[in-house]
Amino acid sequence: xxxxxxxxxxxxxxxxxxxxxxxxxxxxxxxxxxxxxxxxxxxxxxxxxxxxxxxxxxxxxxxxxxxxxxxxxxxxxxxxxxxxxxxxxxxxxxxxxxxxxxxxxxxxxxxxxxxxxxxx
Length: 120
Description:
There is one protein chain. This protein has strands at 3-7, 10-12, 18-25, 33-39, 46-51, 57-59, 67-72, 77-82, 91-101, 104-110, 114-118. It is an all-beta fold. Strands 2, 4, 5, 6, 9, 10 and 11 form a 7-stranded mixed β-sheet that branches. A 4-stranded antiparallel β-sheet has the order 1-3-8-7, with no helix packed on it. 30% of the residues are buried.
């Protein structure tokens, strides 16, 4: 059984920081690209950050310079460090694991989401 379990969400003031974690089980973790997505009410889900097994990263322009994605393959865990948070960062944040081979998606799994609220 594949499980992705997010944690670390909560309420934070503008300018504050939060660290999200996603623990994976039931997959060979090192085979998967790990992503963080978010979805705010009334908006489309958007890709926030991605990291390959080798550590290559990609970020949405809206979070570049403020967020850092990292992974610990030994712990089967991916992290999202969020600094200088803004109210517009408020959303449900989802962890995603995707196994790719050329143009083929060999696996695609999602966590249940964790709420991040940035408000004074």
